[in-house]
Write a structure and sequence with these properties.
Number of helices: 7
Number of strands: 10
Distance between the termini: 41 Å
Shape: globular
Structural class: alpha/beta
CATH topology: Rossmann fold
CATH class: Alpha Beta
Strand content: 25-35%
Helix content: 25-40%
CATH architecture: 3-Layer(aba) Sandwich
């Protein structure tokens, strides 16, 4: 793969709505409430990117243990063992347990140290951080806007395409400290009640710098190990 080629989400029918995918080097927020498959969408980018595009990647988890995440992925037909030669899952949740009560600067430094060292050893093209919300909570920023800005600049210097998973409640905006303005892209996943019996998962690209994109929601379905974006069910 040429490094200038777009990073595909491998959500069938969605990349076409993004002009072929995400421009390399972008920082993209994947935002949504609990249960909207944010982590699955992010892992799918790494997994299919490794299988189909021969891209290298790293997934840093700050909350869910590696074992628990891996067993969930296996049930989805996206087994980490299939791509272990190209994609690493790094469990900072375990380190977090052992270092409870550490200060803001220390946590951010630990995260940067791991992400930076992995870049040197793996030279990953794609980095997923799960999640930005947990990182916020751990870091307890005293000047959040400035510190988030600095963190985004640091991530840009990694020369990778970065996906930051962000937990949101229904009422939330896409960022609490200006991340929505700093990010190059925002992908939103949500649950929509279609009728009394049916809930539909939906996905849309809220923004994506440097690419014309559809701002519309699409139904997000998972079938036989493949994510698909199709037209929404009419309400």
């Amino acid at each position: 793969m040429g490094s200038s080629e777009r990073i595909r989400t491998h959500v069938e029918g969605f990349d076409e709505k993004l002009g072929g995918g995400i421009p390399p080097g972008h920082i993209v927020i994947i935002a949504g409430e609990a249960g909207t498959m944010k982590s699955t969408v992010a892992w799918n980018i790494l997994y299919q990117g490794a299988v189909k595009d021969k891209r290298s990647g790293a997934y840093i988890t700050l909350e869910q243990s590696r074992d628990s995440f891996a067993s969930h992925l296996r049930t989805m037909g996206l087994d980490p063992n299939d791509v272990e030669d190209r994609v690493s899952i790094v469990d900072l949740a375990m380190i977090r347990k052992n270092l409870e009560g550490m200060g803001e600067s220390t946590w951010l430094e630990i995260f940067k140290m791991y992400a930076g060292n992995l870049k040197k050893t793996l030279n990953y093209e794609i980095l997923v951080v799960d999640s930005l919300t947990v990182l916020h909570g751990l870091a307890r920023f005293d000047h959040p806007r400035e510190q988030i800005f600095q963190m985004f600049e640091w991530l840009r210097d990694l020369k990778a395409t970065t996906f930051l998973i962000s937990e949101m409640r229904k009422s939330d905006e896409f960022g609490t400290h200006g991340e929505e303005f700093l990010a190059d892209g925002i992908i939103h996943v949500k649950m929509e009640r279609v009728d009394d019996a049916k809930i539909e998962r939906r996905i849309r690209c809220v923004k994506m710098r440097g690419t014309p994109h559809s701002p519309n929601y699409y139904a997000l379905a998972f079938q036989k190990g493949n994510l698909q974006a199709t037209h929404v069910i009419a309400e």
